[in-house]
């Protein structure tokens, strides 16, 4: 019997170790389907458009695409308000189109990751309609509460408490069918699911299984730190008011007016994430593929790190948003190093890092850092250890497009009701269509009218132009994606140095392989760089690839004490001798 269990253990260990953790050093490319490629000329991107462009992504060398939601939705929040988790939005295509996309991606060796939006559904979801009708099977699917009578005006029953939506104003909406308020932490059309209901937890696991059965390679999970609200049974069945944050210049309608101690980062969240990880793990052997799970939580680092797992259970890869939140076009090499060190220091041992340089909710990389820093910031996200996440268009250095108040679609901007300052909260500029070429609508659509306007600079900043130019952001990006495949970058040690205020060098070292070093000059001046203080760096180096601001070309040989870095040059060097 003992021998038998030993045998089983050995067999299990062998079967688990056979499965490749492909995502450990992957390039994940985020596609916002509405803005990637329109195949039918209606001005809205779609699934067939993505399928048509898979060969571009293959050629670029990325490992996986993450599709922002393409499920059935009234599109109040452009797909993040899902009416049916198992159906495709008709404006994006059909389930057959999705299956065709999956098959084409598989053929090319590109993995498909879906966006899983568990915090809320659409208010047009059947679940919500039934919950409002108090159908016993769905009655507790959402967060319902009675309103609070206004002591000054007994005829008026206001929201249950002071909670505010991320998109401004009360987070509660009255539903006359049910005669109660429901919670929506985002738009009115996004009622929050109630994860204190075991049925909801099971239902949502089945949603994961539905798409896993279709062969997807994992999920990006939306707004995870908002999944649970405080347990009302600890507050006499009420949802308590949140305290005022004290942040200056805000009104009670602004989200940051309150400290969200009851609606974010509740302890129960982590177990839910670990449970979802376990659902993904059910498919590891079945598909002979380790599934990826990345979670979105804008929160403090110690809390963020808990998503990775605890002593007994595996969790997710929490998105690293430090690049987005703590760096900008003024950041020095020292500040960038500090941000890198911070993530690596907080990350639990044995876990995989990740570097997110943009997404559909943030101003574009080129607009945040300035076009001069595009090569440097793209290179950094690719050369650091772990997963690199690229939002569509960042490889070209696309900038934020101008979107007038009249053309504005983002609910976050529309809810400001402010035709002058709306742009400060608008996410539309980062969502304008992808620039394929200099033709009609930048080659995104055959229609000249697109759901958001195409950015003005598409004539000069577009893929076709960058493919034919001798040097371009795209060509450099593609080269560095190839560099990410080198053994030292896949699994080597990391040595990050701020060699002066404006020069950052990142070396990756693996015994028996050439050292790979990314160097960037963030200043307006040429800087002579001496890399000899870097750990175990061989003497002779060669330029692997160089960005658009560099004069040293591929194959040029340099000595480590003497590398001339023109203003805003970003380049990758490899050592002629092996490490170390
Ligand atoms: C996430 C999404 C964002 C969406 C919100 C609500 O932050 O990235 O686009 O509006 O969740 O689902």
Structure explained in plain terms:
The protein has four domains: 28-109, Transcription Regulator spoIIAA, CATH 3.30.750; 120-192 and 230-265, Oligo-1,6-glucosidase, domain 2, CATH 3.90.400; 320-485, TIM Barrel (Alpha-Beta Barrel), CATH 3.20.20; 489-578, Immunoglobulin-like (Sandwich). It has 16 helices and 23 strands. It has helices at residues 2-18, 47-52, 54-60, 95-108, 126-132, 198-213, 268-287, 301-305, 322-326, 333-346, 365-369, 374-383, 411-414, 463-468, 473-483, 487-491; strands spanning 27-31, 64-67, 71-72, 84-88, 111-116, 144-145, 148-150, 153-158, 172-175, 180-183, 218-221, 292-295, 317-318, 354-356, 387-391, 493-498, 503-509, 514-521, 527-529, 540-546, 557-559, 563-565, 570-578. An eight-stranded parallel sheet has the order 13-12-11-5-2-1-15-14. Strands 16-17-18-23-20-21 form a six-stranded antiparallel sheet. Strands 6-10-9 form a three-stranded antiparallel sheet, with no helix packed on it. Helix 6 packs parallel to helix 7 (268-287) and helix 12 packs parallel to helix 15. Mean pLDDT is 96; it is low at 6-16. It binds alpha-D-glucopyranose. Alpha-D-glucopyranose is lined by residues 77, 80, 117, 186, 222-223, 296, 360-361.
């Amino acid at each position: 019997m003992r021998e038998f269990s030993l045998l089983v253990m050995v067999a299990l260990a062998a079967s688990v170790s056979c499965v490749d953790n492909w995502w450990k050093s992957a390039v994940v490319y985020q596609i916002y389907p509405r803005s990637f490629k329109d195949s039918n000329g209606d001005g809205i991107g779609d699934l067939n458009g993505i399928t048509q462009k898979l060969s571009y992504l293959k050629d670029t060398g990325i490992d996986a695409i993450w599709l922002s939601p393409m499920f059935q939705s009234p599109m109040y929040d452009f797909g993040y308000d899902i009416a049916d988790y198992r159906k495709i939005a008709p404006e994006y295509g059909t389930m057959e189109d999705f299956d065709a996309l999956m098959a084409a991606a598989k053929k090319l060796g590109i993995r498909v990751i879906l966006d899983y939006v568990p915090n809320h559904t659409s208010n047009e979801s059947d679940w919500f309609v039934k919950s409002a009708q108090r159908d016993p099977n769905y009655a507790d699917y959402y967060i319902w509460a009675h309103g609070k009578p206004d002591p000054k005006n007994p005829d008026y029953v206001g929201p249950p408490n002071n909670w505010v939506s991320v998109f401004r104003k009360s987070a509660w909406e009255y539903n006359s069918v049910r005669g109660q308020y429901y919670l929506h932490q985002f738009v009115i059309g996004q009622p929050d699911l109630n994860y204190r209901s075991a049925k909801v937890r099971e239902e949502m696991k089945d949603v994961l299984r539905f798409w896993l059965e279709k062969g997807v390679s994992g999920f990006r999970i939306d707004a995870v730190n908002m999944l649970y609200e405080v347990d009302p049974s600890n507050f006499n069945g009420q949802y308590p008011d949140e305290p005022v944050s004290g942040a200056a210049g805000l009104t009670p309608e602004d989200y940051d007016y309150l400290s969200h101690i009851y609606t974010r980062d509740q302890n129960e969240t982590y177990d839910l994430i670990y449970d979802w990880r376990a659902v993904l793990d059910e498919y590891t052997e079945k598909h002979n593929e380790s599934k990826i799970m990345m979670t979105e939580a804008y929160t403090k680092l110690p809390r963020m790190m808990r998503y990775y797992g605890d002593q007994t259970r595996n969790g997710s890869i929490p998105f690293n948003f430090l690049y987005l939140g703590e760096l900008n076009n003024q950041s020095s090499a020292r500040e960038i190093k500090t941000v890198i060190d911070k993530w690596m220091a907080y990350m639990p041992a044995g876990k995989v890092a990740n570097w997110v340089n943009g997404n559909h909710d943030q101003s574009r990389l080129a607009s945040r850092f300035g076009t001069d820093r595009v090569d440097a910031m793209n290179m950094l996200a690719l050369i650091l250890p772990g997963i690199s996440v690229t939002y569509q268009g960042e490889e070209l250095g696309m900038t934020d497009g101008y979107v007038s108040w009249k053309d504005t679609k983002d609910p976050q901007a529309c809810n400001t009701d402010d035709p002058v300052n709306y742009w400060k909260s608008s996410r539309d500029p980062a969502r304008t269509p992808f620039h394929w070429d200099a033709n009609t609508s930048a080659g995104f659509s055959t229609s000249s009218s697109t759901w958001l306007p195409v950015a003005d600079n598409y004539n000069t900043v577009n893929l076709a132009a960058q493919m034919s130019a001798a040097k371009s952001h795209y060509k450099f990006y593609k080269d560095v994606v190839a560099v990410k495949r080198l053994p030292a970058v896949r699994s080597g040690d990391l040595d990050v140095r701020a060699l002066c205020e404006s020069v950052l060098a990142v070396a990756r070292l693996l015994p028996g392989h050439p050292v790979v070093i990314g160097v960037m000059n963030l200043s307006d001046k040429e800087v002579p760089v001496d890399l000899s203080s870097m750990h175990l760096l061989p003497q002779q180096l060669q330029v692997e690839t160089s960005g658009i601001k560099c004069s040293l070309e591929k194959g040029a040989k340099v000595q480590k004490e003497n590398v001339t870095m023109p203003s805003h040059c970003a380049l990758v060097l490899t050592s002629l001798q092996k490490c170390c």
